[in-house]
Amino acid sequence: MIRFEQVYFSFPNQPEVNILKGIDLTIHEGEFLTIIGHNGSGKSTLAKHMNGLYEPRQGTVWVDGLDTKDQQEIWKIRQRVGMVFQNPDNQFVAPTVLDDVAFGLENLGVPREEMMGRIEQALRHVGMWEYRDREPHRLSGGQKQRVGIAGVLAMRPKLIVLDESTAMLDPQGRKEVIQTVSQLREEGITVVNITHYLEEALSSDRVVVMNAGEVLMQGTPREIFQQVEVLKKIGLDVPFSVELASRLRKRGFAIEDEVWHSRQLVERLWTLL
């Protein structure tokens, strides 16, 4: 779905400072990929390359076979890749939830009858149809982000990028958004979640760890979270259940490597006790 080939990126005012350094990365259709890393690791810069908001200084980003540096293809690319950003309040442009979801479809020239069907389907998908006549600023943080996801879903992209979409939410709001993402995954939509909350990565197909503009490592959540010391060394706090399981193993308790979800850990501890 997306392929990075030796991508380097720097901002025009600091061309000597590479934010991305030789990124090689493939994102497969239907995959749920989580990209983690501390602040300044380059993960959000990477995200903005996925729909052509940024262009590589060197190298190529392919989106569904289209080169993001080709300005004649940028419209097609942005129809294929939808983005939900960090601050939900910055994404609203209309007085009601329904009108806001309609905004993108109006820009695409979708006929009104089809538009109304898409809006209802998208809002029901994220559990926000009953709020369709509400003013967006009266919603909770989690509800706002779900509306943001609905606005993207209504345009029917092939891939959705969540660029730190849960960073400004409380735990309940983060839970609502991740539950919504899990539903998208089950329906085969490709999802890329950029986050510094490692708990969100536990249900991913694959995790990519960014550090200093480079891909430090990638693998399944189990493979990545076995590297507790490496993650801590680059400033990431591992999920509590993962760290507790790691400490118990070091103390000689028979905790298997695949046990790192909190529920799995509780069941294993109960068995041991």
Describe this structure in words.
37% of the residues lie in helices and 21% in strands. With 273 residues, it is an alpha/beta fold. The model has no long low-confidence stretch (mean pLDDT 90). The longest helix is centred in the middle third of the chain and has 16 residues, at 171-186. The chain is globular. The protein has a domain at 29-45 and 70-221: Rossmann fold, CATH 3.40.50.300. Helix 3 (97-108) packs across helix 4 (112-125), helix 4 (112-125) crosses helix 5 and helix 5 (141-154) packs parallel to helix 6 (171-186). The strands form 2 sheets. The protein has a 6-stranded mixed beta sheet. It has helices at residues 43-48, 74-80, 97-108, 112-125, 141-154, 171-186, 221-225, 228-233, 240-250, 262-272, and strands spanning 2-9, 20-27, 32-36, 58-63, 66-67, 81-84, 159-163, 190-195, 206-211, 214-219. A hairpin with a 2-residue loop joins strand 4 and strand 5.
Main attributes of the structure:
273 residues; alpha/beta; Rossmann fold; six-stranded mixed beta sheet; 10 helices; 10 strands; 37% helix; 21% strand; globular
Mean residue pLDDT: 90
Topology as H/E string?
EEEHEEHEHHHEHEEEHHHH
* Uncertain segments: none
Treating each run of at least 4 consecutive H or I residues as one helix, how many helices? 10
Strand-residue proportion: 15-25%
CATH class of the domain at 29-45 and 70-221: Alpha Beta
- As a percent range, the share of helical residues equals 25-40%
Distance between the first and last residues' Cα? 47 Å
CATH topology (level 3) name of the domain at 29-45 and 70-221? Rossmann fold
The largest sheet has its strands arranged as 6-7-8-3-9-10
What is the correct CATH architecture of the domain at 29-45 and 70-221?
3-Layer(aba) Sandwich
The computed structural class is alpha/beta
Shape: globular
What is the assigned CATH homologous superfamily of the domain at 29-45 and 70-221?
P-loop containing nucleotide triphosphate hydrolases
Main sheet: strands, sense, barrel: 6 strands, mixed
Number of strands: 10
**Spatial extent as radius of gyration:** 20 Å
